[in-house]
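Need the bound structure for magnesium ion, inputs here:
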Amino acid sequence: MIACTGLTKVYRTRDGGEAGIRDVSMEARGGEWVLVRGPSGCGKSTLLLALGGMLRPDGGEVRLGGLDVYGMGPAERARLRAGSVGFVFQLFHLVPYLTVRENVMCGALDGGVAARGRAEALIEELGLGGRREALPGTLSAGEKQRTALARALVGGPMVLLADEPTGNLDPGHSRVVYERMARFRKDGGAVVMVTHGADANGFATRIVEARGTGAPFGFGVAANGTRHGGGL
Ligand SMILES: Nc1ncnc2c1ncn2[C@@H]1O[C@H](COP(=O)(O)OP(=O)(O)OP(=O)(O)O)[C@@H](O)[C@H]1O
Ligand SMILES: [Mg+2]
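Answer from helper R.:
Posting the output first, comments after.
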């Protein structure tokens, strides 16, 4: 459902070094939850943004539902992303002047009755019922994270890309988030989640260990856990 081959994105650092990812190939099919684990700075967010059509790689290819994400024009890519990808950002990126309900609705393709119903259902399922009219500035970190997950799911995506979705949650609330993500997967969606922790291990169908930020940089690990390609 979503796959990348030879994905490379290099940042030049001030000291003349390099950071980013090199030659990463992986795939997540419908019904799969692929967990990419690796230390801070190894390129997890970079990988996820590139998979989600938000960061053009220097090399390699991303395919979403068979379509070449970076081979199409920006408008087409934006449409594909809006219709097919739900993204939970590491730092939430909620709109500060919109309520929880309005932030969730930002992930819907339209403001119709069906979308509003899905938003309400997600708000309840994720334990945000009492906070639906609250502004992000008044939310706890966990509430922000759950609002971000509801926004990612409300449009009915095929693929959910989640960047440390429970980094700020206590174990009880992490479980609420993971169980909702597991339901998405069991309903046929594909999940790619990146993390440096181990608390989602039991929910993943496959775990990819990224190597650290050793020389030269980044990680190159195939989805089945075997080392893959360049940069090594
Ligand atoms: N726009 C950028 N310009 C320069 N360097 C960058 C840029 N974005 C990321 N980097 C560097 O690339 C490396 C990978 O960053 P990335 O955010 O993908 O790591 P990460 O694995 O998500 O880390 P964390 O677990 O801390 O979130 C880091 O060394 C980071 O400093
Ligand atoms: Mg990150």
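Comments: Strands lie at 2-12, 18-28, 33-37, 59-64, 67-68, 85-88, 159-163, 190-195, 206-209. The two ends are 27 Å apart (CA to CA).
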